[in-house]
Amino acid sequence: MLADNVSRRTFLKGSAALSTLLGLGAIGSKATNGLVPTAAAKSNSQKQQFFNACPRNCYDTCSIVTTVEDGRITFVTGNENNHYTKGRLCVKGNTYPRIVYSPDRIKYPMRQKGRGSGNWERISWDEAYTIIAKKMLDIKKEYGNTLPICLNKYSGNFNILNYATEGMLSSIGFTTRAQGTPCDPAGSDAQAFDMGTAYNNDPEQFMDAEYIILWGANPAWTSAHSMYFIEQAKEKGTKLVVIDPLITQTASKADEYIQIKPSTDGALALGMIRYIMDQHLYDEEWVNNHAIGFHEFVSYVKKNITVEWAAEKTGVPKPVIERIAREYATSKPANIWIGFGMQRHTNGGSMVRAIDALAALTSNIGKKGGGVNYIGGETWGFNYHTMSFGAPEGTEGEADRYVNMNNFGAQVLDAQDPPIKMMWIACRNPIAQDPEPNVVKKAFDQMDLIVTADLYMNQTVEYSDIVLPVTTPFETVGINVSYWHYWMNANEQAIKPLYETKSDLEIAMGLSKKLNELEAGSCTFPVSGNLVEWVEKEFNDDIRKLFGVKSWDELRKNGGTVKASEKVTVAWEDLKFRTPSGKYEFFSKKAVEYGHHPLPVFIEEYKANNEYPIRCISPHWKLGIHSQFQHIDWLGAIQDHPFVEMHPDLAKKYSIRENDMVNVRNEAGYLTLPAKLTKTVPVDTVVMYEGWWKDVHYTENFNVKALPSDMGDYSKGQRGIAFHDNFVKIEKA
Amino acid sequence: MAKKLGFLVNIERCIGCHACEISCKSFYQLEPSMRRRTVRELPEDLVGSPVRAFVSTACNHCDEPACQKACPVGAYTKRDEDGIVVHNQELCIGCQMCGKACPYGVPQYNPVKKKMDKCSMCYDRLDVGESPICVSKCPMEAIEIVDYNEVQPSGTVSLVPTFADPSITHPTTQFILPKPGKQFRRA
Fold first, then answer.
1. Which residue of A33, A94, A240 is the best one to mutate when testing the B interface, meaning the one whose CB has the most B CBs within 10 A?
2. pLDDT at residue B162 in the model
3. Which fold has domain A614-618+643-688+701-732?
């Protein structure tokens, strides 16, 4: 979610603006818990401990302690020095030893004769670099530029050094890039229109909240460490309300669960707002002094919104809307967490604007323990040194060309003058994760060369020409921060890279060396360098001030993890918003610039048609992140195949019983998978979870169309995907 | 007085994430198919309204361990000082009688060592003042070790769905059941 250049610049700007406010933290006194690595601690012991950082696309971005005995990892667990990780990992993090030593690791560079044939042959790194570099130089010769080379890289590994892949391609000239993110764009734009950027309170502050609304968020599965703080808060008396179409694992823990019709969350927020306005439960001083456009918003709400309408629209009874509105407005501080799933609709961004407005008029923004929390990027202000080398002298053209990551297949096929002829894929599995994977495959078919860097033989690798084996976090060096919590984690090299694996940064250096051998000056990326020196180059004065730590080396010697200054952990505490007006904008001209209504209004939801009447939601799954983790045998021993959840009443209509095979079908085709009957899903909706299951031909995106959400192009360059506006029909297979 | 150590599993806190099971598997470097702790799904109407509920169990370190009675070579002992049921793999002949006898199916066959295997309540960690792995690694702090001779926590139960009748072997494990929340479901 933070991979694209546009958002990175936003983060850099944000961090620069903040830097003047920052004081120095106090790392000097940080206890090390005897975890300082190296054999120095016990000279004759073979047992060592290292700090690692989980680099996955996850709120929790854990700090890890790795035990190594005789050069082999024997245990991986959470770092107690990190008060968010708290010495404990989620189920996925606990599988890391198996991730490293899995028999399924890709061990060597390989070349496939016939895409999808499985006819792989081992090649040397030199051969791999030669094939790739020659192709790149041939393309440059034939087309006069390098735009036919397309990079699709995203969130499989958020180690800051992994931006070397982007940097390496920038170092050969201008290329085509998959731009945007399938994750958060609609909601991030909404918060950017309202407040200037998305910026969340420290999740450890759930403990300070008097009232928590988890709005379409399922942290029990996607952020176990936040769930701990939420459960602790609940046990000491904080009320936990969960609003979700599904009775998720998190909803199962709520004091109060409210089942809402999908894609009507904005109507619920506006109904609550109407009640709060009518009852004068809003903070008049706050909206007058710290916001613009409140009167226009009041006019809109009074003219267009009633609680009755909201009840009708959302399926939530009027008395419940009124009571929740009153409770929320009168509890201080009240905390809202908006989940990413909630905005994966054609009206997702506008719904997030409505929820933001609810938090704003009750002055819950800028308060410790409060906030309208979605995502944040305050700690991401690194140098991104790996992307700093620029195009070679004499490069033709002016800039990279973008294709929409969220409609990747179609846009690659459409690209002309020049067409796209080569693809580099890293930290990504587009054939499993993109909508319309069959169109992505067609785009692959058009390529002269597809290079994928990965750990395992996933669906995208199977469709590539060359695979480059990459390192796990334990085999390389890095630095990681979160888009949710406020810690920075060092990643030390705990073991030597297994087999012939290399990090994306080492691959970038190796390829640059080959390119320069074949054509001197063809690539500006450094051809060698020490990984620790590279990571030290990511530190700048803003980072040093924000975290109170001078260097990566100091960080790893002092507990491996450090939290940012308290001055940034309460979002908008100074009420200086980064909007054009400097205030909270109920009325946003910027929104108008991007084609939206200036106010947080309700946009009608996307509707089912008669042929495909059943909504198909594809949320995150507890044993995986996107297509990572679930394929590992430790997790396969828990659940070895995907399934479709449906309400028993829906199943009965189609004579489907538990474990019966079901075809889930729409215009894109069908998937066949076993039914799991459960009353935790509504009767008009089926649920298929995200994941890559080993030896199972499955992707939950098989019948997802590239239907855009309403927002995203302001902060992320491209709109998001309305993943959950997917409609299907079902039949017993 | 001797201790009577047992697990206290807080189902109200448990999110069914399996971190207990996998951290144990990782720490003891078990074969991929083996587990000393298991997370099972409970009936979704457990507390009335439909919820996703799970229960995590390991060896129940029973007062009258069926494994010990069934073992032909005396590989099982129940420690006098705390009641932990310990399996001595050195003595085990891999006959699997214990696995068949245990109403909870706790002892598992290790296909590589050709011996049985089960949870030891990490007694070697407890002996040096550390918590068992599952206790110290549960992200929700939902598993505790309690000396049931010392304290009898209120509101616990010894039987949950999927769990065998405790009158057979008198397991020491107790559970805290989830409290039902309010639900507003669409008609």
1. A94
2. 86
3. Barwin-like endoglucanases (2.40.40)
pTM: 0.94
pLDDT in tens, A351-377: 999 999 999 999 999 999 999 999 999
Quote ipTM for the complex.
0.97
Backbone angles phi and psi of A246, in degrees to 5:
-110, 145
Q: Do residues A195 and A578 touch, judged by C-beta distance below 8 A?
A: yes
Q: What is the mean pLDDT of residues A89-108?
A: 98
On whether the CB atoms of residues A496 and A50 are closer than 8 A, the answer is no
DSSP3 helix / strand / coil % (chain B, rounded to 5): 15, 20, 65
Residues in A 256-275 with any Cβ partner in B closer than 8 A: 256-261
Token pair 């039987």: residue: B159
CATH number 3.10.580.10 is the correct assignment for the domain at A201-374: no
- Residue-level pLDDT at A45: 61
Q: Is A640 on the interface with B (CB under 8 A)?
A: no
Which residues of chain A lie closer than 8 angstroms to B55, CB-CB? none
Give the per-residue pLDDT at A46.
85
Q: Which CATH class is domain A106-181+401-476+496-545?
A: alpha beta
Alpha-carbon distances of A374 from A201, A353, A528, rounded to whole Å: 9, 12, 40
A90, A91, A679: which to substitute to probe chain B, counting the most B Cβ within 10 Å?
Answer: A91
Contact (CB<8Å) B137/A89: yes
Alpha-carbon distance A509 to A530, whole Å?
Answer: 11
Domains of chain B: 5-176 (3.30.70.20)
Tell me what pLDDT residue A44 has: 53
